[in-house]
Amino acid sequence: MEKSINQRYVLTEPILPMLSGMLYSGKDLPLRRDVVFFVVESTDEAVKEAYIRKLREVAPLSDNRFLHILDVGMEPNYIFAVLKTFDGKPFIQELKGHRFTPEEAVSKVLELGKGLMDALEEGISGCSVHAANLWLSDDGQLKIINYWEKGTHAQRGAQGLGCLLYQILTRSESIPVSFDSMEPRLREALSSTSRVEQDLLIATLRRVWNDQETLASFMLVLQSLRHDTAVRQDPVWDRQVWDKKEPERVDKEEDPAEKEEEEQEAPPRRSLGRAGRKLLVGTAIACLGGAAAFVWLGKDHEEPSGKSASPAQTEHRAPVQPTHQTYDKPAGPEIVEASDPNQAEAEIVIVPNLIGLQNDTAGKQAIAAGLRFEFAIVVNEREEGTVFKQEPAAHTQVPKGTEIKYWVSKGKQQ
């Protein structure tokens, strides 16, 4: 099949049927280059004009995790978008036969997540990241094909990335209707990884499925799961379990000014590359102090028992115990004012959403984000042990090492 458009383009053959159109291979004759065409059939002039406006709104996006729009146009019976092509093919055609390891799958989903966050800065959101809307280049990179139309709830944002990770790990084109039916297949696909790795990833994907993770918080977890080739001799997933100690409760009211400072900094597990944009910098830096979060998931955590006390009596500081302690200077992390603006930017992290989490999980999330924390246990209508308030608010950008505070319910007063 060959079809000429405006005496400039030639459509050669169909590649893939998509939700609202068809993907074709073709050529740009004047520039002598291969291109891809997204063609939508329509004879309604109003519909075509509205679709062209939609294409032109997103055309300035030049992120390399998307197929760039080079040109758009209308013919009597259809609309077309000319997309920059890369050696490769639609990912859905390679889904069942790919050889990505679990680590590579996490890295690819993380990269797409960064692309979605970059697109948000350009006002572009809601595009599908289902495997059927991705292009796999010969160098192994995944790129979003159609980013001007909205995907379904299960195809976009954090849930879309979670479902894509399931598709890649299980080599499945379809998504089950419930997470319970997904879990056995995920565990089978992750059989080569440790139980700790499996538990963290599956627990995170379950929260994503239930809309309990934002895109930013999901990316924090993915970043912590991604191995760094520079530290393979000491991979994060295989590090020992670190113990977290809490000070005992006191029976008398404490003067906050006289509280003993016990904050201690967990030594960074790895060196991560900087992402270049503020949100992504926060993601990368948060993980320097956050590798301990997932290795704790398999370890029971018990709050120390004590006598009943007023809210003022139940505030605690919960440091991480490092392998090497320094006694001649404060153990808490230092916030250094850098003369280099880039260095200063690298010290900014994102406050995770702790509301609704259990006490021990909230502490782990705080540490995973590179933060110190304290909490208070008070009477509240929420379920006992559940976080119901935090300061600063979730998604606030703060310097790494900042201390946040959250409040835990001890149930309704009898």
Automatic annotation (TrEMBL):
<feature type="region of interest" description="Disordered">
    <location>
        <begin position="301"/>
        <end position="335"/>
    </location>
</feature>
<keyword id="KW-0472">Membrane</keyword>
<keyword id="KW-0812">Transmembrane</keyword>
<feature type="domain" description="PASTA">
    <location>
        <begin position="345"/>
        <end position="410"/>
    </location>
</feature>
<feature type="transmembrane region" description="Helical">
    <location>
        <begin position="279"/>
        <end position="298"/>
    </location>
</feature>
<protein>
    <submittedName>
        <fullName>PASTA domain-containing protein</fullName>
    </submittedName>
</protein>
<feature type="region of interest" description="Disordered">
    <location>
        <begin position="245"/>
        <end position="271"/>
    </location>
</feature>
<dbReference type="InterPro" id="IPR005543">
    <property type="entry name" value="PASTA_dom"/>
</dbReference>
<keyword id="KW-1133">Transmembrane helix</keyword>
<feature type="compositionally biased region" description="Acidic residues">
    <location>
        <begin position="253"/>
        <end position="265"/>
    </location>
</feature>
<dbReference type="InterPro" id="IPR011009">
    <property type="entry name" value="Kinase-like_dom_sf"/>
</dbReference>
<dbReference type="Pfam" id="PF03793">
    <property type="entry name" value="PASTA"/>
</dbReference>
